[in-house]
Amino acid sequence: MWGFFCVSSSFTQAISILRSVSFMSDVLCPRRYSVEDEPSNLDEMPLMMSEDGFENDESDYQTLPRARVNQRRRGLGWFLLGGWKVLCGSCCDCLAHVCRRKKELKARTVWLGCPEKCEEKYPKNAIKNQKYNIFTFVPGVLYQQFKFFLNLYFLVVACSQFVPSLKIGYLYTYWAPLGFVLVVTMVREAVDEVRRYRRDKEMNSQLYSKLTVRGKTQVKSSDIQVGDLIIVDKVILVSCSCFIRTDQLDGETDWKLKVAVICTQRLPAVGDLFSISAYVYAQRPQLDIHSFEGNFTREDTDPQVIESLSIENTLWASTVVASGTVIGVVIYTGKETRSVLNTSNAKNKVGLLDLELNRLTKALFLAQVVLSIVMVAVQGFVGPWFRNLFRFVVLFSYIIPISLRVNLDMGKSAYGWMIMKDENIPGTVVRTSTIPEELGRLVYLLTDKTGTLTQNEMVFKRLHLGTVSYGTDTMDEIQNHIVQSYAQVTSQPSNGSASGSTPSRKTQTPGPKVRKSVSSRIHEAVKAIALCHNVTPVYESHAIVNGETESAEADQDFSDDNRTYQASSPDEVELVRWTQSVGLTLVNRDLTSLQLRTPSGQMLSFHILQIFPFTSESKRMGIIVREESTGDIAFYMKGADVAMASIVQYNDWLEEECGNMAREGLRTLVVAKKSLSEEQYQDFENRYNQAKLSIHDRGLKVTAVVESLEREMELLCLTGVEDQLQADVRPTLELLRNAGIKINKHKPHTTGGIKVLSVLAVNLSCVALEQISSRGEAHLELNAFRRKHDCALVISGDSLEVCLRYYEHEFVELACQCPAVVCCRCSPTQKAQIVTLLKQHTANRTCAIGDGGNDVSMIQAADCGIGIEGKEGKQASLAADFSITQFKHIGRLLMVHGRNSYKRSAALGQFVMHRGMIISTMQAVFSSVFYFASVPLYQGFLMVGYATMYTMFPVFSLVLDQDVKPEMALLYPELYKDLTKGRSLSFKTFLIWVLVSVYQGGILMYSALVLFEAEFVHVVAISFTALILTELLMVALTIRTWHWLMVVAEFFSLGCYLASLAFLNEYFDLSFITTWPFLWKVSAITLVSCLPLYIIKYLKRKFSPPSYSKLSS
């Protein structure tokens, strides 16, 4: 968990690989725009103005962001309806901010191997993911439970039973259920907390190799300090450099090349690092993982040696050294590392169904209080009416059953088990068991592209030279041209040089005034592709003796079969593989040289003078090389068409062909070349080195120097590489569209977005917004797009940030109207921001799916996060609520399991509330008949048995019910649209259940009072038995598809009740319940309470059947 800084890679002893902690969230810092240069008159500019000017129109101000026009009035009503929560939350936040003021992050000077010289105290390098400690565990868990209205209500009712005047029944009838819920919750939290503690202890106790004056020692991760020299190594493959994997930091699986400080490479031995006086000046800790600025200074030389440092010299925490050996000085530790700064704390997600049930329980509580007030009012508020009021509240407390939370939690666990046991989606893991119903309520799906929708495997498809294009079926022609080209070169006299030498440049290319032939153009294009990259050939070692590697020549096999290519981009690897397939092979590369092998076996050697790596801002990379045989210097560059169009010489085909390839779904790269004289290069090198040593505005100065070279370059070719889609991605996306789910994709390349859109809808047109850099441009582009209808939107990450900065509400509104949106080159922070904006502006449920560490923030911000275990590691999978192995599984996960989970939980929740409302209605009728006395109808074990063994199993068996077969749900995804409307659990369905409960409760109680003859105990026996039978029959009425376990549950509960009658002498007259009058009275009451409901259900299905029943028939 530290930020590495490469100092030396000369240490060659092999030790075990060191892995830093992989955090649950990694995000990038979006590029910030300056507003000082914006016109001041745009501050009040409405969005929908004419494109001819920005004149003001009063009618247009209605389109301003809601933050400016929708200023809510805050009064007493606002305070009572929830404003008090906002005010309390604001006060708590302010208090927490005052108590936890963050230390200002500053730039630092770090001396090599001398932590004691640090001027400031830096954070400890320890990980702590625990939520509680030994003192805060019990209060914290209790707060998390009782902050919800339902549990707090039960706590107040249970505590009221300690007051003698308010006591009704036995204490265990109130405290036993509440205690059971709390114990289960505490045990679950304690187990999770112990697991987190063990994981933290394991990571903090990992041993690392630390270099000291006395040699190498072992040190714990938590004891590492800023300034320590840490050794990380694997088998040596490349001198003065190493490869790292960053899949857990930025989601990229390809190896990245890191280089060491040149100054320290000249030291004879590793121990000499302590004999020099050197320090590193590093910028302050920041979020951006793709940039670093600093200087390395050695003071004990005359003159001082100052070397500029960049991102190529760093190894961040959460990265892994894949090959090579590194001795790094620790720059950042603990909370100041890039991975921790980019980590967002995971929030406890609450499902929409839980929020809806919470609102319904509040409505029930209000009805309970009103009913209690009516009871006291009818009495005339005589005597201790306030005590009677509270007793009535306690009597009617069963209207909100505590078993509601227990049944729902158990049901959610059952849904998770069913999902993981589904053989049609093998490997699926449910990591968050509290929100399975969210899978059935989704409206927006936000997905990553590379690795999620695609296989992340590149295939070279097209080479375009302007006048001629080559595809996969004509690659043999390119190979013939390359073979002939180098055959002609070798046939030329070489002045007695060896056969492997390369002839002069004049023999390779004709003069500039002569039109080049197709063969020479192909030769130049393939050569440029083989040179312009950051790919390194790697040869695996085989002979290792006593843990030490022998010489590279003896250990390594340099054959084509043993060679693999590593680079930070899979596109570059595929391009180099393609040049190998046509005859020009990259066989060796280090920091300063590069060798190519021609089809005839010749070796072409090039000296690497400068490399300009690819960045998201420049969208291109370049390299300057000198051919050793001729001394010619050439500047090669490749990049995106939007960046290269203004750099290359004028042409009339580049834009058109890029569009054609984009429509085919190919990732395009433009390749260009510029020849340099020795004088031109020396002038450039002086200016470039001077810019790199700047401390302030280094990036701007370096960019300006490089751009001075990027002028009038010769356009060589256009390449097209395809990232193939995963299996069944097209039908799965079509399934989701038909289900009414709107899809937003985050992807690194604009051109590939066209292919994804073609997958989403064949007949769908798309609009790509131009590059937006100011508010005025955003205004014009959004106005133009508003006039489009039924169009998909394609926008880059930079343009997205500008639009959200000035027109957040308007942009989200437009995006929500689109059938699909593709966001290109988005940072992880922007992905999470889009999810948050959709939740805020639409109030609909969102789902995010990804496979890399850079998708974690988006997954955690969404209402439902789905991770895919892919080539980019398991970080997204571990951070998600649900983990799947392939994207196509999301169709069944949503259409089948999402539907069943939501439908079953809605039915289960409403039936549990019905079970409480019917007995509360009976209590109200009983009290009203007996002079409004606050006396309980059923006491002791009867109430406990009613909520548990008598009715629990049939009611819980509703988790096995289904309205539509899985095959039907997948065949007609349009059924999913009804779920998003929330009709299965709404105030309408709730009121229907209330009416049913009032009807049945009234019938049961009045009929029992009318039919009883002698003793009051007969009323209890008749009404309670009829109540149990009614509940069992109502479960049968609710079930739509019978399961054998449902039948078992029905008969088991009935058997338990009949068997318990023999032991309930305190409540029932055994001599009466065995008589014929008891049987016919119970049967008659039960028939009257249930038969009308069966008739109504039959008539409704006959004349107004639901949509799913029509399909089933």
TrEMBL record:
InterPro entries: ATPase_P-typ_cyto_dom_N, ATPase_P-typ_P_site, ATPase_P-typ_TM_dom_sf, ATPase_P-typ_transduc_dom_A_sf, HAD-like_sf, HAD_sf, P-type_ATPase_IV, P-type_ATPase_N. ATP binds at D448, K449, T450, E572, F614, K638, R667, R825, K831, N854, D855. GO terms for molecular function: ATP binding; ATP hydrolysis activity; ATPase-coupled intramembrane lipid transporter activity; magnesium ion binding. It is an enzyme of class 7 (translocase). The active site is at D448. The chain crosses the membrane at residues 172-191, 363-383, 389-408, 912-934, 940-960, 990-1010, 1016-1037, 1044-1064, 1076-1096. Keywords: ATP-binding, Golgi apparatus, Lipid transport, Magnesium, Membrane, Metal-binding, Nucleotide-binding, Translocase, Transmembrane, Transmembrane helix, Transport. Mg(2+) binds at D448, T450, D851, D855. CDD domains: P-type_ATPase_APLT_Neo1-like. Its EC number is 7.6.2.1. Residues 489-518 are annotated as: Disordered. One of its GO terms (biological process) is phospholipid translocation. Residues 489-510 have a biased composition (Polar residues). Residues 118-175 form the P-type ATPase N-terminal domain. It is a multi-pass membrane protein. Its main location: Golgi. Its cofactor is Mg(2+). It holds the Pfam family PhoLip_ATPase_C. Residues 878-1105 form the P-type ATPase C-terminal domain. Signal peptide: none annotated. It comes from the Eukaryota. GO terms for cellular component: endosome; plasma membrane; trans-Golgi network. Belongs to the cation transport ATPase (P-type) (TC 3.A.3) family. Type IV subfamily. This is Phospholipid-transporting ATPase. It comes from Cyclopterus lumpus.
